[in-house]
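Q: What structure does this chain adopt?
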Amino acid sequence: MDAALLNSVSSERLKSDLFAFCREPFSFRTVLYTLPWHKKCSLLEVDDFIAAEMRKYTDRVTLLPNKVQPFRCDSSKPLHHWYSSPLPDDPWYDANNIEVVLPGTDKADEIIQLISHKDSMSWINSPGAQDNAVGAVANMELIRVLSALPRHRTIRVLFCNEEHSPWHSLTYANAARDRNENIIAVMNQDSLCGKAEALDRAGISTQAVVYNFDEGKCLADFMAAENEKYGLPLKVSVAHKKSVNDDDGNFIKAGYLYTVMNLGSYPYEDEQYHLPGDIPERVSIENLKLSTQLIMASVLDIDAAGAEIFKR
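A:
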């Protein structure tokens, strides 16, 4: 990849999208919040926003309807984990997965899958900036930039919901498995630059690439090497997580083991995790840009060389 392409990632667009998600017009992205005089909840409105923006760059944008229940709030739990499962007779609401596809040419059957959940917490009123507006806007920016470049392989993004129940990333991953899709790499952007506030004050940009199995470690090590290759001023760590969870875990459960999760720190150190203080003003736009550039470089080099570039 020509390193000059990294300059295509725009801090201004990332910031604009971030504040649209978390301040104006959406504030919260949940089925339980509807702006006065509006007919749709904020989660459906942000779906419309994402779809309309992505259709400027590809006509392969599909809303996949599903039903969700909000999590209940249980303040007897530890502070950052107040959510509890909905009761069976709690109401169901309309929601969507959004699929965005940039088709490849000669290797179109090989898919590089990106993921991010777009919703904010359903059990408290939080803007959900680090968790996970940053991941969603990073993937939006990647679609903008990558749509203008030639591609051998298909690049596909899933915008899903994870702060409501159930998680339909599993439905999506299982459908891909049932279609026998050849997904060669999966990257989940969740809390992409969330980290301890002390690191932000010190101007240190970080990214943790987390894996579950050896196949995922190959991809994680490759991304860390990409950071060195392109001289990005990111402090990248590779970490193992024992639990097969989050939206990346659902792809692993479907059999796609070359899967990683990209976040700002692991174990996660953001002091405002799952709290109302998770506001966009706390997000380091520089860190968000650098992390987006690293994912972009990794995607483009995998597109150019195939999975053999990171497999051992």
